[in-house]
Each structure stands twice: as C-alpha cells, then as structure tokens.
Predict the 3D structure of the following.
Amino acid sequence: MPRFERVAEYRSNQPHGSYGGLFTGGSPPTLHAFDRPRMTIDKAYLQTTCVGRVQSTGHDVQVVEHEKVSVIIPTEGTIRTQFAGQHLQARPGQVLVLGRGPRQTNVLRSMSGVYQAVILLFDHAELAMLHRGLASSRRDSAPPDNYCRAVDVGTSTPARHLVHLTGVLLDDLDGDLASPLDPGSETHWQQLLSRKLLDVMGSRHGETGTTRADTPAHRHVRQAENHMMSAYEEIRTIAEVALACGVSTRTLETAFRKVMSRTPWTVLTDIRLDRARQLLLTGDKGSTVASVAYTVGFGHTGRFAKSYTAKFGEPPSAALARRGFSPRVAGSGSSVRYSD
C-alpha cells in the first residue's frame, strides 16, 4: 500500500501553488491571519483515487476541479463552500460530496485552533462507468455529475460506512495497522470506496427515525442556517429567521444553544463575515470596505471591521489591499480608519 507524502506546507500566503496539486486548478489558499498561520497537505494514491489530508489554522481558497468527484470529511472545524449556485457547509459528523466544477471555499478552525479534513477524489469517468454498470440493479443511485450535498453521518448508514472505511484506510496509509493491508488491495479499496460513495449519493434522505443528529433541534438549526445562507443580507432580526422556519424565536434560540452552544445571531454574523471575506478577496474592482459591509448586511462599518478583525486576525482593509485595491469608502474620497 502507498503512504502519505507531504506535498505542501504554508506558513504565510504564497503567490503560487494550488492546494498542493490536489485539484485540477484554482487560486493559492489565503491563510487567515492569526499569530501562527499554518497549513499542511498530505497526499496518497489508490490507483486513480487520490486521498488527501488537510490541516489548517483557517483559510480561503478558490478551487477548480474538472476531473474528480470530491468527498470532504471534516474531523475538526467547519468547511463552507459555494458550488453550483448552492451554499453548503459541513462539520465533524458530516460528509460533503461535490461534483465537478469551480467552487469558492472558506475553512474555519475549531475551538482547539485547527481545521482538519480528509479529502477523497474519485475519477469522474470511472465513477460514471461504475454507476452505469450498477444502474440496472440500483436505480436509486444518483449520477456523479453536477452533484452536491452535505450528508449527516448520523442519519445515513452509507455515509457512516464510508467514514469508517476511510478511517481504516488512513490507519494503513499512516502505517498504524498491526497487520497492514495487502499491497495488492489498492484496486479492491478503490472499488469499495467508489461503491460506497454511490450508496451515499443514492441515499437521498438517510435513515428514518430520530437520532442524535436528527432531533427537532437539529432540524430547526439546519433549516435556520439554510435560510441565513440564502438571505443573510436581508435579515434584520432573529425573529424573521424563526418565522421563516415556522417556530418561535425562543424555540430557535434554545435549539442553537443545544446543538451548537451558540446564538443564532452569532451564526448569522459568521455567515456574513465569511461572505464579506470572499467579496474582499475576489469581488469587483470597485469594492470598498463600506460597500462590502453593507452588501452582506452590516449597518455599521466600524462594527463590521471589529468583528472581521476578531475572526480573521486582520482588518478588512488588509484583505482589500492584498488584492491591490484602495480601502476607501465609496464616494468619500478618504480611507476608512479603524481603531485598534
């Protein structure tokens, strides 16, 4: 069996490189500016299937993938991505499956200060061929092209099996198994993982019944987050979110405290800040700090700057300047000043 190889290590933002060569193309990752920013990428191959392992203190990246279907399994922190017109996110206990195409991704570290994830990249042509071969006996399988979904491991048996198999595979790639797997089993592993991925893609609703990840509180939180992601720039009160979810404000706040140990407003603010960072780094040339703040729903530029700096370790003007634009307020003719 192959072993992991360190293919990239970043301790600052680099002008070149695209995620350690994991994907077809894209921009270099932009590390969040904390005291000791760092990102490492390890990679191994099982025939044509790539297994990647990413560890980061937080970063943004624009990825282009034309050949592979991506499976992202976060073990710490949160990944949020915009793909095929949808806003998706995944945390530990979830699996993110993305078809081919460009995507903008924001990675947030956990309370322990790190984001970690395993990435499985399956050859699209081989996966499509396997799908066609199984189509007559497995009509529920979804074709691998243009597919995007975040799956709860707690409510999807195929996703749970895929995560378990990946864990066993990682132990072998790290050389941690007492009895390593047969070196000739790469083809078997690739086929096993590919079939399990098709199971995940075909099981659209997961298991029925109430589990820890499928309680009313979890459903309220997921529904609220989906609404926040689609209408973050328009929301003015959490009561509006609760109304859209068909529950009371108190019920929604209780659900967020139970599931995430956070308030709905804090989560909404994070979504706005993530979108603001995307706009500052990749938006229109006419962007200003103030225009971005108002676009994502902040009514006060100073509060926006303070919240942004607390989350990303740098003021929004620094992100805008790194892109080469002047951090000015539209129409003011003067730079925005921020207090320390």
